[in-house]
Each structure stands twice: as structure tokens, then as C-alpha cells.
Amino acid sequence: MFDNIRVVLSHTTHPGNIGAAARAMKTMGLRHLYLISPRHFPDPQATAMAAGADDILGSAVVCASIDEALQGVAFTVAMTARLRDISIQVRTPREAMPQVVQEAASHPVALLFGTEMSGLTNEEMGRAQLGVNIPANPEFSSLNIAAAVQVTAYELVVAAQSYQPQVRDIVPVPHERMEGLYAHLEKTLFEIGFFTTQNPARLMQRLRRLFARARPEEEEINILRGILTVATEYNARLKKRYSEEHPDVR
Fold first, then answer.
1. Is 79 helix (H, G, I), strand (E, B) or coil?
2. Cα 101 from Cα 99, distance rounded (Å)
3. pLDDT tens-digit readout, 113-150
4. What CA–CA distance (Å, rounded) separates 5 from 188?
5. Structural domains in the chain plus CATH codes
């Protein structure tokens, strides 16, 4: 199941942290490292800090965006050091990793880590279905990225040792299909005038949280997008009829 788990580091600034994260991954049996726009990579410091995990660095996939890094992923876990006023459900690694193991048994999963200084952005958090917060000293809660990767990977191993296969009735769609739905939904809400009294960014965050809980399947995505298409077409017909009946109104 670990073949289905990728570790994604977003906008890492220090190459040594990439190498140390690769070392942490290899000690726990994880092999797939994805890097979103790292400031320096490849780099001798990354190689030095990898301390023998050169194969992890050599096969690392460098991506230009988070959507590229999450291509094909059906379940994303966002690591966060701070709780936010609007967010997905947040658990500890001990609570969350059994679900990650279950998910990884049937489809690709991503563990998403943010920058050293500020962590993940709200936009990046919105790409995840689950948040994970490592309990730490509230007065000094910021963990080094490699340390966070090590803790998370260890908890994965612990969860895997007690893994019991489950029959899954739901087949979740990959990341890109969900992003297609969100883009279609946002475009439609703009076209029908729903955002005139709403904060678009905040509303889309809430809708992402709703669908993160629902985990729709392919057929359900198709139904939802069909509804959006009909709504857009109906709205366009109403606008056309109104303009024909009121040619002097701009």
C-alpha cells in the first residue's frame, strides 16, 4: 500500500530539508517524493542530508503547481501546525493514519506539507480531504519539515501493522476531477449571479469542505456537472429573452 502514498513538499526553501525528508521517508519505507516549486533542487545540501536516500531524491518529481503534484490522487492529507476558522476536519497522526492506510490500499494518497516558515496556504489546505496536526508544545509548535515527515511516516507504519482490509463501496474520483467540478461550480455561481451577496473565496472554501466530506463518485460528479450545465443554459435563455423583451435596458 505504501506504493500508493506520495509525500508532497510545497515550496521548500532549504534544500537540506528536502534531503532530510527523503531520509525520513526511506527509513519508514516510503519512496515517492513530489516537490512543488522548490527554491533549490537538485542541490548538494539535499544529497548530503539524505544520508544514503539518494534514490528517493533521484526519483523525486518536481512540479510547477499543487494540481500537478496531486494529479491522480484520490485522497489528500494536509499537514498543518495551526487550526483555522474554516477548514477541513483535523486529526492527530495517530487518529488519521489508519484511514490513510485504508485509502492507500486501493488508490493514490498524498501527504501534503507546506513551507518551513508559513506552512500550507488556505488554497492548498482546500485541496485536501483531511487535515493532520501533530500535537506539540503550544508555545513552540513549529516542527522542522523532516521531523514532521518522520512522525507522520512512523504513524503510517504503526497503522499498517494493524491494517485489516475492508470492502469499499465507494470509488472516489481523482484530484483533477474534483478540481474540474469546483471550477465548473464557481463559474456557474458567477454566471447566475449567486456571488452578488456572497464572499466568493470563502463560499468556495465551504463548498470544498462539504465535498471533502461527501467524497463523490464519478457518476455523482457527472450528475452535478450536468445540473450546472443546465442551470447555465437556462440562465442564458432567460437573459436572452429579457434582452429581447427590453431592448432599451442595458
1. strand
2. 5
3. 999 888 899 889 999 999 999 998 888 877 899 999 99
4. 34
5. 2-161 (3.40.1280.10), 175-245 (1.10.8.590)
